[in-house]
Amino acid sequence: MIRVMIAEDMHMVRGALVALLNVEPDIEVVAEMSSGDEILPAAHKHRPDVALLDIDLPGKDGLTAAAEIRTALPEVRTLILTGLGRPGTLRRALSAHVSGFMLKDAPASELADAIRSVAAGRRVVDSQLALAAWDSTDCPLTTRESEVLRLAAHGADAAEIAAKLYLSVGTVRNYLTTIAGKLNARNRVDAIRIATEAGWL
């Protein structure tokens, strides 16, 4: 029996995933959650074979949680199920060493097969997205610059970003200026738009 944990913040989607997977004779959903902050504690508690994670979750995002699972519980495989089908998003997922990456609009029959493949130690990646990621450009931002822009994208101002990352407000403003320059953006909002569309956030 393959034990699966699901993290998805949309209740109807999560309920549908649970119902879909529980009819499979060899798959059992052992835990479900709506927040990224719940993922690692639940993984420690339930020790699933596969963690099925959305990326865009309240609190911690799914890719951050996947990286934490890999560090703390390397035997747990992670499969990203997302509506964010951008090459940059896939590149971020592969950098987090996820075991699989599927789009939410994939046929339902493919999900159970993907879970079985990931549980068996194979990697599953949407082929068209993989080709697009191969051809896409790397994110020009450093890890810290990406952190700053991600917080800005969630509505944090310079002072809030500074407090969260233990930086001075001036340093944060310098980062935002550098980010805009690297992305050829007109301002912070334009930088967020460019990075989001590229799948870098």
Automatic annotation (TrEMBL):
Domain Response regulatory span(s) in chain numbering: 3-119
Residues carrying 4-aspartylphosphate: D54
InterPro entries: CheY-like_superfamily, Sig_transdc_resp-reg_C-effctor, Sig_transdc_resp-reg_receiver, Tscrpt_reg_LuxR_C, WalR-like
Domain HTH luxR-type: 134-199
Protein name: Response regulator transcription factor
CDD domains: LuxR_C_like
Entry keywords, A to Z: DNA-binding, Phosphoprotein
Organism of origin: Kibdelosporangium philippinense
